[in-house]
Amino acid sequence: MKTSNLLKGAALGALFAAGALAPAMAQDSVYFANNAYRTGPFSGSGIPIGDGMRDYIAMINERDGGVNGVKVIYEECETGYDTKKSIECYEQAKSKNTIVYSPWSTGATLAAIPRAHVDKIPILSMAYGLSSSADGTNFPWVFIPPFTYWDGASVMVKHMAAELGGMDKLKGKKLGLIHLDAPFGKEPIPVLENLAKKYGFELKLYPVAAADMQNQGSLWLSIRRDRPDYLYNQGWGAMNPTAVKEAAKNNFPMNKLVGVWWAGGDDDARAGGEQAKGYKSLSWTLAGTEAPAMQDILKHVVDKGKSTTPKEKVGEALYNRGVYNAMLVVEGIRNAQKLTGKKVINSEDMRRGLESLNLTEARLKEIGLGGFVTPTTISCTDHSGHSKMFVSEWDGTKWTKKGDWVEPLKDEVRPLIESNAKDYVEKAGNWPKRTESCEKSS
Amino acid sequence: MSDIATRPAPNLLANPLVKAGLIVAAIVAALAIGVRLDTSNTLYAIFVDPFQQMVQAPDLLVQTIWEGLVSGVLYALIALGFVLIFKASGVFNFAQGIMVVFAALTLVGLYEKGVPAFLAVILTLGVMFALAVTIERVVLRPLVNQPDIILFMATFGITYFLIGFGESLFGGNPKQMIAEQLYLPKGAVDLQILGGLVSLQKIDIAAALIASLMIAALAAFFQYTRIGRALRAVADSHKAALSVGISLNQIWVIVWFTAGIVALITGIMWGARSDVSFALEIVALKALPVLILGGFTSIPGAIVGGLIIGIGEKLGEFYWGPLIGGGIESWLAYFIALGFLLFRPQGLFGDKIIERI
Amino acid sequence: MLYREAGQYKSSYASDMAVFPLKEDRIGIAVILAIALVAIPFLGSDFFIASVMIPFLVFSLAAIGLNILTGYTGLISLGTAAFMGVGAYSCYKLTTLFPGVNIIVLILLSGLFSAGIGVLFGLPSLRIKGFYLAVATLAAQFFLQWAFVRVPWLFNYNASGAIEVPQRTLFDIPLTGASATPETRYFVCLGLVVVLTWFASNIVHGKLGRSWMAVRDMDIAAELMGIKLLNAKLMAFAVSSYFCGVAGAMMIFLWYGGGEAADVFSIRLSFNILFMVIIGGLGSLIGSFFGAAFLSILPTALKFGLPALGIPIQGAAAEHVTFMLVGALIITFLIVEPHGLARLWQIGKQKLRTWPFPY
What pLDDT sits at residue A205? Predict the structure, then answer.
């Protein structure tokens, strides 16, 4: 029994080795592994994201024949939002020489950060993961564009102030934070606490245990008792539609409920039906298919039947986030090619490419996303960009942009990021010092 | 091993060492909580303040109890599925949770394929029947006479299989329950009482009514029909039932099918309250304390247990939860059940355990 | 022919009481150890060692721990993951409080904290039996999991709320942290598992183990024979939780290398380990290894093995097929051999003993 297992394992090992060689032999391709979760309790959020990423890369391969002629081989590794499987996926991606690792869960990101610094694989955790990893000096291998959860929390406070009529009006108000009772959900607490102290508003916490995601009755009773003026929802998966439904049920004014960007899926809001109208969420990508790049996806991929995405799902809020993430990867590759002069880049080139990524409005226009997504600039020290975002509103059928692009309170967030990054590095003991040289932003 | 659940409990609470241990545990827990609180008014916060709140805002108290009542009914529904199967076949059916999801997904999936709502319900019942027959043929029949824990394990195999099967058929994304098409009411009844507003969701009222009707129907079924009598005979003794000519296989199919119907109704109700996704499977774990509290073999036990757990955890979370940071609902139910168990180790309505050497 | 006891006489008490009384068994175990110590680290790829072997070893140890409680003493526990979590968090607290002490020592010490918590939640077992006891351990599971998130002292007030595994070395070779190679981590795991298995084997074959089995078979009878139920049951909880705690510390420090531990030590893990014990064989140490191999290696092998063998399924479909296959295999195995893989192993040995002339 034991030996037969070992044999099986050895055979598998050999096959993996063979698998790793295959992409290297095809000269004009780079391999990109993406963690996806199309199964499990969080699949409602995972499926549209995975679809968006897959379709954008397919579009680049179809329309342009890859990035400067180099095909991007996109492979999904199913995690079911389970950290154990994510770690397997990381090892698998590493053995296949992925140019960038895309963890798609905060837990997976946390587990991968130390490894990536040794294995020299850049992590692209787009607007999720460890907020302090925006500090490029201490985390040269982690990228968290276009902003962190802490930026999001600061924009929430700004939004509240704007509606109330100024930062000074915040005094004496109550902000409630509904959050998943896990590190992901607790992420905005330090920033909100700081801001609450500074502007004199009160912060109330409403944790939701993962097991009670669809059973939030008593939490909403507490909200009824406390009567917060605004609610910020840091939720994910099945927790979001339940929260929207409960808000409607408890007569909480829907326009005072604002979700983090991951709580802004179409399915999340749709669950509330007619009453969900006015539900808000932070975002940095406009929903819809008007952008030229989105049209290209429809034309080259979806209409040709090369995608499994149903056509009506193209352009949903989370789908477009997936597109944005894939676009970051593609632009990172392009930038790396420019810097190194190589066509087929490796993971270290990719890191350089991401670090000097400068997605200006003009560049976004060339890509076909100008005006639809936030421009962002990553630099050697700032791995996030702290870019602008906007508040979007559910109008009953789709997400629409409401109000202007808002800049996060970078002065509040940045010192916190730096002190926390230092803390992380100190506690880790013997953290590798940054040896990678800085690129000039292109 | 096999009759582990049916053995008695020597009264070890009489043992001074155990008593001392429990007291120490209680003190440690109290201290741990105390440290988190402002020590000067800890006692006030625990023993006085919540009751003051109840008196000051009776409308919230009523609302909390109502919420507890409704979730209690829904827990009881899941627990009912467990009890039916445990009574008739001695199987601790871990798969009940996934059966709820599977039934609800089948219903919604069929509707999305264009089947009219009520036809979809009938077809789903057909699917649940097919599932019951398959489980009986493939899993239960070959495993007859095995220890409880092996049968328990087998239902875990069923769970794994149904997760994979359900997701590959219907996809993993959450779906909306077709509540309107099934003529389930929407909206709320707002009552102006006790100086405040108590809002009762119509869907919750419907859930409570449907659950009561179903429980009454099941009780009548068990009491007055031939099959019901056979079921009770099987529950009393497999061998005696066989000797008077009751077909165990047939009874098992009926029981699993009944559990399937209960699962479908549970799925519709939970689905209408949030949505239909695999996350519902986790909620099913809440049925375990209910089951333990009520006793594995008692239908009234499942209901009373459900209500105690539902109301207890909502009151606990609402009035005492904020003292230690909230979110205590996830474990409070188990502690409530544990408290009852220390006094009645076979649950409130469970069969009395008689032990012989 | 190759495997039989004929002619091997036991001429001293020591040899009569040996764990492996047969020469063939001793050779067998030596071969397995040689493969584990030499062949795997030198021939296996990093992926194989890090994602197949290390998880297998960690789960084996946890399964041994639960087997002591469920298989040997007959007490069902669904709180295994929480007890593992206690081990992981104590190890983290210990290594940040005493950075100078070697991490292996701390991993072994952290099991003691887990044992203490285990005893506390084991107290109700004196009154509650069977599936009813499961709820007491579930209370432990959910309460501890809540505490892991809610008590920031446990994770040193990290902003990420996760255990951030620091680098710890032995003779300048990093054992934990990112720069520790899979091979090093594998050797540490292997060493711990081998030593603790030997330890467990001695316990279950000794006086304590016999009293556990007596309690399992009928506790009232055991009590009448003079076994103190209180001591036997609480010792079972203590020893079992010790093993689980060590496994938990290994899991975070040698396998995961940090992460959201509250999410890791969830109810799912508890169930998984219980199923490893049942599939492997209740009351069998070697069964714990078989069970861990079956439930931890099989899904990984299916997920990554099928595409590698050229079967073109991937992503969600592969996950679904894996779920269905594992479910079907569990049922098949239970039907074929309800007493677990360990019984199959025994039958195999018996066949080998009479081969080639079965009588």
Answer: 87
Chain pair A-B, CB pairs under 8 angstroms: 121
Question: Could you tell me if C342 lies within 8 Å of chain A, comparing CB atoms?
Answer: no
Residues of C in contact with B337 (CB under 8 A): 135, 139
Give the side-chain half-sphere CA count within 13 A for B241: 21
What is the extent of the structural domain holding A335?
16-148+287-387+417-428
Mutation target to probe the C interface, by most C beta carbons within 10 A, among A53, A91, A236 is A91
Question: Complex ipTM, two decimals?
Answer: 0.83
- Best probe of the A interface among B277, B288, B334, by most A CBs < 10 A, is B277
Q: How many domains does chain A have?
A: 2
Residue-wise pLDDT tens digits, B178-233:
777 777 777 777 777 766 777 777 888 888 888 888 888 888 887 888 888 888 78
In total, chain B counts a number of residues equal to 357
Res. C56 pLDDT band, cuts 50 70 90: very high
Looking at the structure, do residues B268 and B344 belong to the same domain, yes or no? no
Task: Compare CB distances from C304 to A16, A210, A427 and report the shortest one's residue.
Answer: A16
In this prediction, what percent of chain A has a pLDDT beyond 90? 2
- Buried b / exposed e across C213-250, counting CB within 10 Å, b at 16+? bbbbebbeebbeeebebbebbbbbbbbbbbbbbbbbbb
Residues B227 and B344 both lie in one domain: no
Q: Please indicate, yes or no, whether residues A275 and A304 belong to a single structural domain of this protein.
A: no
Tokens of A220: 């909403």
Distance to chain B for A235, nearest Cα, Å: 14
Select the residue of C129, C275, C326 nearest B4 (Cβ to Cβ): C129
**Min Cα–Cα distance to chain A from C102, Å:** 14
Q: Domain containing B338: what range?
A: 282-357
Q: How many domains does chain B have?
A: 2
- What is the pTM for the complete model shown? 0.86
Round to whole Å and give the CA distance between A269 and A265.
Answer: 7
Domain holding C57, by residue range, is 22-265
Q: Per the domain annotation, does C345 fall within a domain?
A: no
Give the tens place of pLDDT for each residue, B115-153. 888 888 899 899 999 998 998 888 888 887 777 778 888
- Residues A169 and A137 reside in one and the same domain: no
- The pLDDT tens digits for B28-63 are 666 566 555 554 566 666 767 777 777 777 777 888
The SS3 assignment for C94 reads helix
Neighbours of chain A (3+ CB pairs under 8 A): B, C
Q: Output the domain CATH number for residue A304.
A: 3.40.50.2300
Check whether residue A225 and residue A96 sit in a common domain. Answer: no
pLDDT tier for residue C123 given thresholds of 50, 70 and 90: confident
Strands A174-180 vs A142-143: parallel, antiparallel or unpaired: unpaired
Q: Which two tokens stand for residue A418?
A: 């730096």
